[in-house]
Each structure stands twice: as C-alpha cells, then as structure tokens.
Amino acid sequence: ADEHDCESLICQDMVKCKSDGRCIHWTDVCDGIKHCQDGEDEFMCEFNNCYENCSCFSMAIKCHGVKQILNIFPSRKTIPVKFLELSNGIEKIQETDFTYAPHVLLLNLSFNFIAEICSRVDKPVFKTLNSNTVLDVSHNLITKLFRKCFQGLVSLKFLALSSNRINSIEKNSLLNLDKVNTLNLAFNDITILKNDMLHGILNLESLFLEGNDIKIIEPSVFLDIQIKYLGTSNFRLCCMYRKPGLTCPATWHWLSSCDDLLSNVSMRIIIWIVAFLSLVCNCICFILKFLKKGKN
C-alpha cells in the first residue's frame, strides 16, 4: 500500500527515488531494506554521530537551540543528511555553513533569529545546496532580500519567507529560481509591489501575500508569470492579475468592481444621482447666499 500511486505524488516531506520516481518515507531510508529500484535509499548510511541538542534518525537531523550551523558537523566531513531542521538558535548564516551537507533536500530554518541571509553577492550562503527542493526561512527577522539572494538553489520548488520583517526586495533577488512554483511572502512589511520584484521566478504558480499592507502596485509586477493562486486580502491585487483559472481569496465588496465603473449600468445610475444631487445642493446654496446678500 505504501508504494501505490507514488508516481503521481510530488514527494512533499518525503524522499523521491531518482531511479524509478517513487516516493518513500524518511523512515525507509537507511533502514537496511532497499526501497528504491537501485537501492539508492541505502547509500551513504554510515552517519552515526549526532551533535548535542540534535536528534538524528536515518538521514534526518533536527536541532533545537544550536547557535552555529557548522557545529553540527564537528568532523568537517560531508554527511548524507537529506532533511535538516534547525530552530530557536540560529542568528546568522555564513557562506560555508552547508558545505558538509550538499545532499539536503528539505532545509527548515524557521523560528530562528536570522536577520540577514544574503547581503553579499560574492558569498552566497546556499551555493552548495544544488539538490534542495524545499527551503523554509519563515518566522525570522529578515528585513531585506538582496540581489542574487538564493544562488545555488537550482532545484528549489518551495520557498517560505513568511512572518519576517521584509520591506524591500531588490531586483534579481529571486534570480535563477526557475523551478520554484510556490513563494510565501505572507505577513511581512511589504508596502510596494515593484515591477521587477518577481524577476527570475518564471514558473511561479502560487504566491502568498496575506498580511502585508500593500499601498502601491506597479502595473507590470505580474507581467512574466502565470499564477494560479494569489493569496491576498487585497482586492486590488485580484483586479491587477485578472487571468483565467486564477484563484484569489480576497473579499469582494459589493461596491468594488474590477471592471470600468462607467461600463456598469448600476454604477452609472448611482454616479449620475450623486452628481445631480450635488448640483442641486450647490444651486440652492448659491441662491440662498445671493438672497442673503441682497437683503444686506
């Protein structure tokens, strides 16, 4: 039953066999039994030592309260970890932090104290993670995404940056993320959606922007992408990206319309009534003012 219809899954939170495409659970990796066709799930299973404050199982490492990422690799040797979760401790990510874990598929850095992840183009922190498909950096203190911020993540499909303090996204911050289909920027401090904000992320399907006080939306922000889901409470965003098949959960107010207001008969009538009443009131005020002036 655990192998039924696995070919149709995306393998989220699971391991995908390169040889036959099937999905297997983390607990099936390095358990002494070959679940993949060529037995790749039993390769490099000599990882035995687990760092303090971490729990290690099969090819997964979960750490709580670790301050420096490199401390997890005391031997300074490459380890076959595929799932790496670090929480409640990391304050800074350095260029060499993931040198010894190049095979990581899922990297979870949520709920830390990270304020900066890519300030220097010449020192990309994710450059060795060519196989990484899921990156979660949500619930941190990040304020800005710099140019070429995610260099090296050529296999990335899911990027979570929600619940940070992001207020600025430079052009080319998301460059070369050709395979990313889900981007979560919800609950940040984004007020402006710039035209070049999403440059380089052409295959994006789901974009989450809830919880941002967006005041300015530049006209070409969605020009080169084909979004299927736009997560927002801002009705104007749904109007900006009006394409067939789009799901947009923003609440539609009865007075709001994406269409030209003057092409809507009901709205035209309302506008004419308001204009007529304004004209009548202004005329009455003018007459009363004229009569009062005549008496004086």
Shape estimate? elongated
User: How widely separated are the two ends?
Assistant: 97 Å
Q: What share of the residues does DSSP label as strand, in percent?
A: 5-15%
Total DSSP helices: 2
**H-E order:** EEEEEEEEEEEEEEEHH
**pLDDT averaged over residues:** 82
- Class from secondary-structure proportions: alpha/beta
Sheet with most strands: 9 strands, mixed
Trace the largest sheet across and list its strands: 3-4-5-6-7-9-11-13-15
Share of helical residues:
10-25%
Low-confidence stretches: 1-9
Overall radius of gyration: 27 Å
In total, the number of strands is: 15
Topology:
Elements: E1 15-16, E2 23-24, E3 54-57, E4 60-64, E5 83-87, E6 106-108, E7 134-136, E8 144-145, E9 158-160, E10 168-169, E11 182-184, E12 192-193, E13 206-208, E14 216-217, E15 229-231, H1 235-240, H2 265-295
Parallel strand pairs: 4-5, 5-6, 6-7, 7-9, 8-10, 9-11, 11-13, 12-14, 13-15
Antiparallel strand pairs: 1-2, 3-4
Quick structural overview:
By secondary structure, this protein is α/β, with parallel strands linked by helices. Helix content is 12%, strand content 15%. A 9-stranded mixed β-sheet has the order 3-4-5-6-7-9-11-13-15, with no helix packed on it.
